[in-house]
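Researcher: I'd like a candidate sequence for this fold, 457 residues long. If you have to choose between options at a position, lean toward the conservative one.
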């Protein structure tokens, strides 16, 4: 039997029972649409979160100075103090009142001396910058000196976080884009670049380009206003990032209230940012950075007084978490597909019973078992395919509606989102579900004997 004839018979079987076919199709539609919505929204949120983390320095490596924390040494000190206190208590019980007073004076003097003895805090200096620049995998090295400051505008004031950066490197290492004006450049003094949120939404009157703004009583000229970050989580950069950027040399005097920083302080940084070449091996470069800094700072892995932070690991962990959550929700939604496949199987078994005599007639006039099986398989595939197409369309529309409502609520531009992977998976699943659900009824129909089929009532 020709394929065109098989498809025509299968289509007539669908038309003959419209209500039953549509009820079966609705089950498939619900399952496919649910899977489509979950996969598409999961991929969209993954892209937005990744974009936000990268905007906060996702592809950079940050070095932070930190004194190693050793639990064992604290425990030993605590035990020694307890032993000393018990010995002192025993001695005090056998002494006179005058002796007790003398012992108490000596006892109280020791803790005071120990409190005044503080360890030298770990620092990042210009020497560390030179070491990092000597690593072949490193493309840019940026220094950060950070502080808080009070910004006034008329009768209003707010607290802002100021990030001092290297003007020669920061424009190349940052993911932020300038919306108005320009970025910092070498030789800039008493100038700032501010975030879009600070310029547009913080004060009743907007801060404009080339306007003088006071930070801790000192005036700085606004030479650039950053563009607003796009995407669903675009505002997160302004919340967790800095609001004001200026040459790092300016931050020392801003922090201490002095016109110029001391020569020693000018070589000390809060953090150092490193960006690697695109073709560099990330893990190898991390190991090289730690190894060279240890040699330069004369520390071991146990006494290491700095910490290397990589946002790439956080991005990968977040991506895996979202992927796992999406897969779990897709599995839950896939249960409705199982229900839909049961409906298709039930419809096909019913069709076999209704068409038993017709099967006998077709076999009597020469139809093969394979022809009968193909007819019922095509019938099942048509039902699932129609349900899959409608489910994909409804799922896509539902996703756009969800994103539109979110964008309207958060006052951000609406972005159309369509998952090619989700569309492909939904299409294949709809066909496979129909074939699996129809294969057993089709096989039973093809194995019917013509005589038994003709005598069936």
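Model: Candidate sequence:
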């Amino acid at each position: 039997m020709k394929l065109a004839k098989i498809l025509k018979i299968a289509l007539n079987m669908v038309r003959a029972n419209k209500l039953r076919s549509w009820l079966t199709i609705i089950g498939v539609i619900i399952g496919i649409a649910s899977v489509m919505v979950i996969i598409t929204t999961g991929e969209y949120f993954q892209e937005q979160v990744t974009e936000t983390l990268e905007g906060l320095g996702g592809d950079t490596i940050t070095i932070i100075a930190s004194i190693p924390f050793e639990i064992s040494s604290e425990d030993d000190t605590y035990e020694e103090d307890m032993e000393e206190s018990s010995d002192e208590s025993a001695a005090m019980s056998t002494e006179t009142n005058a002796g007790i007073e003398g012992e108490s004076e000596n006892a109280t003097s020791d803790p005071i001396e120990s409190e005044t003895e503080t360890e030298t805090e770990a620092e990042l200096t210009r020497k560390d910058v030179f070491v990092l620049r000597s690593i072949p995998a490193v493309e840019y090295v940026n220094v950060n000196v950070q502080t808080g400051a009070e910004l006034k505008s008329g009768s209003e004031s707010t607290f802002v976080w100021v990030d001092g950066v290297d003007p020669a490197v920061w424009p190349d290492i940052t993911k932020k884009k300038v919306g108005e004006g320009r970025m910092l450049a070498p030789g800039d003094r008493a100038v700032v670049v501010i975030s879009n949120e600070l310029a547009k939404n913080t004060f009743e009157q907007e801060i404009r380009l080339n306007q003088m703004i006071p930070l801790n009583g000192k005036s700085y000229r606004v030479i650039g206003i950053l563009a607003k970050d796009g995407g669903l989580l675009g505002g997160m950069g302004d919340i967790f990032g800095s609001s004001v950027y200026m040459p790092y040399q300016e931050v020392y005097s801003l922090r201490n209230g002095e016109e110029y920083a001391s020569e020693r302080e000018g070589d000390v940084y809060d953090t150092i940012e490193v960006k690697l070449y695109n073709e560099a091996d990330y893990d190898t470069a991390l190991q090289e950075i730690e190894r060279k800094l240890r040699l330069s700072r004369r520390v071991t892995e146990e006494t290491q007084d700095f910490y290397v932070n990589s946002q790439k690991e956080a991005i990968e962990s977040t991506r895996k978490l979202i992927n796992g959550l999406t897969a779990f929700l897709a599995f839950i939604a896939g249960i409705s597909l199982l229900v839909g496949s049961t409906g298709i199987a039930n419809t096909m078994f019913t069709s076999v019973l209704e068409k038993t005599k017709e099967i006998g007639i077709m076999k009597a006039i020469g139809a093969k078992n394979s022809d009968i099986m193909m007819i019922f398989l095509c019938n099942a595939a048509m039902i699932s395919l129609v349900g899959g197409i409608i489910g994909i369309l409804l799922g896509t529309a539902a996703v756009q509606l969800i994103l539109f409502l979110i964008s309207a609520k958060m006052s951000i531009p609406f972005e159309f989102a369509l998952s090619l992977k989700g569309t492909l998976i939904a299409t294949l699943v709809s066909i496979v579900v129909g074939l699996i659900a129809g294969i057993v009824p089709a096989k039973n129909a093809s194995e019917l004997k013509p005589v038994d089929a003709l005598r069936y009532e």
